[in-house]
Every structure is written in C-alpha cells, then in structure tokens.
Amino acid sequence: MGLFGVQLVLSMTMASVLSKLSPHFSFARWLLCRGTLVRYLHPSDEELRKLSGIIPASNNVKGRGRRDRRNAKDVEDKNFTVPRNLNIELDTAPITVIDAIHLQYYTEFQWLMDFSVCALTVYIITEIYNESTRPKAEFNLSLVWIILVILFVLRILYTLTAAYFRSEDTGEMAMCITFGFFFFVLAMVILIIDEDILELQLDQAYDSFSGNASTFLEHQDLESSGPISMISFKLILACMGAVIGAFLTFPGLRFAKMYLDALKYSKDTPMKQVFLHINFLMPFLVTLAWIKPISRDYIQDPSLGKKLTGHKEPILTDEGFELSRMVFILLLCLLRVLLFNTHLQAYLNMAYERIENMKKEAGRISSIDLQRKVARVFYYLCVVSLQYTTPILLLLYTTFLLKTLGGYNSGIFDEFYTGDSSVLSTNQNSITVANSSSTSAESDTTADIATATKQFTLAFAALRNIFTMLFFRGVLSFFCWWLCLTWFVTSMFGIVYYTYFTIS
C-alpha cells in the first residue's frame, strides 16, 4: 500500500465500476444506440413479389397460362429473381440495443470502449493527484491501465487484419502485405533523416539506453560494448512501424470512404464540411509539428516572440513546445470522436447507394442477393466502428505514455528516471543496510521473503536506470508521429482509390 497508496484504491474502484456499471450503462452502447444513427431495412419477400408483379400462388394453377404457372412457382421458391431496376424504397429505423447486440464484434467494441473510458478516468485523476501532491515513492499505477488499452487495441487490430488473410479474396491479403513492405521501406528512409530536420530524438534515446545498459553490465562484471547497435535499434523500430502500417491499412481506407461520403451528404452544411476537412488533415498537420525547420525553429524564433509579445524571447519553451504537440494530438482525437456519428451514418447510407446503383443496371437479381446488399452494411457496423476508433485510441494512449514516461511537467520522474548509475549503487547500499538490520530479528522464512523483495526492487531499479526519460521520449515520440503519418498516408491512398478507380 505504501507503493501505490491512493492510486490502488482508485484502480480498484474503477475496476468495480467497470464490472458493476457496464450492464446498466455503456459508453459504446451510447455511441451506437442513442438514436442518432439510422439503418436501412431490406425489403421483405412479400414486398419484392408485390413490386415485381409476381402473382400469388393458388391451389389450382392448371387453368393458368405458362407465365402464371411460372409466377406461382416463383412464389413457392424463396430464392426468386426480380428485375434490378425495380423501384424499391428502403425503410429506415434507428439503431437500438436489441439490433446492435447481435452484430459481429459488438462485444469487442463494447469492452474496448468501456475499458478505455475507465482507463482515461484513472489516468486523469492520477495525473491531477500526482501534480498536486507530487508523491516521491509511488509507482504510477495508471500506466498499467494505459498499457492494457494499447495491448487490447493491438489485439483487435491483429484480429481484424487476420480476418483478411482468412478471406477467400486474396486481394485484401495482398494489400496488407504490400502496405507492410511499403511502410517498412518508408520507415527505414525516415530513420536516416538527420535530427536537425526531423526531431524524433531517437539518437538521444539510443545513446541513453546504450550507455546505461553498458553501465549495468559493468556492475554485473560483464564485458560488453553495448546491448545493441544503432542499426539494429532502428531496424527494430522499422519492423514495428511496418506492422503498425499493415494494421492501419484498412482502417485508413475505410476512413477515406466515410470521409468522401460524409462530404457528399453534408453539401447543405458548409460548416460541417469545414470540420470534416480539418478532421481529415489533422494527422498531416501533427506530422508537420515534428519537422524542425517549419515548426520549432519558427515557433521558437525570438523575432516571432517580439512581434507577438513585444519581448525578444521565444513564445514557448522547449518543454512547452513539446507539450503543445501533445495537446494538438488530443484535439485531433477529440475531433474524431465528435464526428464519429457523422462518419458512421455515412457508412450506413451505403445500403441506400447500393440499391440506387443497382437500379441503373440491366437484368435480374435473386431476392436473397438483393436483401444481402442491404443487410451486410448494418451487419459490419461494429467492424467499421472498430476501424474508426482503434487508431484514435492507439494514438491517444501512446501520447499519454509519452507525457508520463517522458517526464513532461512532472517531478516524479526526476527521481525515478535519472539515468544515473549512482542510483543503482544507492539502491544496492540501502538494500544491504536494510537487510543487515533485519536479518538478526527475523526468521528464516521472513529472510527469504525479504531477499526476494530486495531482488525485485533491485531489478526494478536497474530497469529504471536503463529505460530513462530520454529513451521513452525518443521511442514514444517516434510512434506518436508514425501513427499520424501512417493513418494519413493510408487515408490519402483511399481518397485516390475511391475517387479515380471506383465507379460508385
């Protein structure tokens, strides 16, 4: 309890709320089923027969003509055909919980959104508590919640991507592999850009990690020039970036399609179109914030500060500028959440578009295939919802990790992540003193527990010295920037594809 204090009580409270409140209130259910999303209902068999002019079956069809007998046979057959240009008017209905609960991936969507909200609550309260009290011996337990959300998001993205590999359509699998290799090459090119142009701070992260790891190995009487080379370090980052790019391929393509459709349905509301354009371009603007010549060098130019404030000083400090980039990411995530219903409704309208496009075609279509055209749109609603929200959550909670583990505006990490090898020796001395003073008074069993505790504490202290603030700032800053870049690149590819290579 001394290690966690108030945070442990808060985490246990939120875990209880998550288990007890979810059956009664769910943020995911509120997003989908609060009445703002409208789905299209497929026409029934009776409606299709009536519109196509098929005569109902009769007990006596011997006296009928050949055409009437064929119509009667169609009535008995559930899979009858109708003209494609049939004048069909689709009915609409608001989405309810009864409708959504049977959808594919609904359980995953509900659990992810509800857990993310609880993790966000824990993180915000913990940050306020840490900033107000600045405890010196408490581990930030909200990091566990944040890491769990990221792991859940990656698992869902893996599941959605794996479904394309199991599909009969090999084109989807080929697209994931192609984008994976493309982003691997792109990451390798980006990682060789000088830090004076693209300030990801990876060089400082590697120097900090390599130096502290070498110091740790020296304390263990192991000779080593370093745990890993710079090339291997960047190669690992490139491989991880390629996997993330493959995961975000279809979410980016789906977002591009919903963005184009949302623009089409909001022609009468120019203000909404402005927000849609800003929402689409925000990831690109965030990536520009890490390009030093057009962001930091301009914002922190003393001449700019003199024009705005009258004093020849930068308008933002180094830490203030880095925090402003995180705030920019938070605004991006907030805007995308606010436009969630607009994009999801644009997706649901695909059912109406499919029927309208079908009316322009010649020939006939079976009743089952026609109904599937409409029903499949609603059936994959939760899949599309996950494709829309998972990149938001991944970017948002990675930013939280960057803020906390990077030690921005927090005094906790000045002690926990000093990167100084003297901390390791201090911990060793303190543990030795504590052990020598307690061994004489404790039994053998208690001594074993104390030994295990000191070993765990020593290992944890060693990890804190190896993975420093500089390391987390470089690696997590890279992933925040990379998520925005891949999200925007896949969306831009979707814009080009749906604009120039598709008919509908």
From TrEMBL:
<keyword id="KW-1133">Transmembrane helix</keyword>
<keyword id="KW-0325">Glycoprotein</keyword>
<dbReference type="Pfam" id="PF10268">
    <property type="entry name" value="Tmemb_161AB"/>
</dbReference>
<protein>
    <submittedName>
        <fullName>Transmembrane protein 161B-like</fullName>
    </submittedName>
</protein>
<feature type="transmembrane region" description="Helical">
    <location>
        <begin position="141"/>
        <end position="161"/>
    </location>
</feature>
<keyword id="KW-0472">Membrane</keyword>
<dbReference type="InterPro" id="IPR019395">
    <property type="entry name" value="Transmembrane_161A/B"/>
</dbReference>
<feature type="signal peptide">
    <location>
        <begin position="1"/>
        <end position="19"/>
    </location>
</feature>
<keyword id="KW-0732">Signal</keyword>
<feature type="transmembrane region" description="Helical">
    <location>
        <begin position="173"/>
        <end position="193"/>
    </location>
</feature>
<keyword id="KW-0812">Transmembrane</keyword>
<comment type="similarity">
    <text>Belongs to the TMEM161 family.</text>
</comment>
<feature type="transmembrane region" description="Helical">
    <location>
        <begin position="475"/>
        <end position="500"/>
    </location>
</feature>
<feature type="transmembrane region" description="Helical">
    <location>
        <begin position="377"/>
        <end position="400"/>
    </location>
</feature>
<feature type="transmembrane region" description="Helical">
    <location>
        <begin position="326"/>
        <end position="348"/>
    </location>
</feature>
<feature type="transmembrane region" description="Helical">
    <location>
        <begin position="274"/>
        <end position="291"/>
    </location>
</feature>
<feature type="transmembrane region" description="Helical">
    <location>
        <begin position="231"/>
        <end position="253"/>
    </location>
</feature>
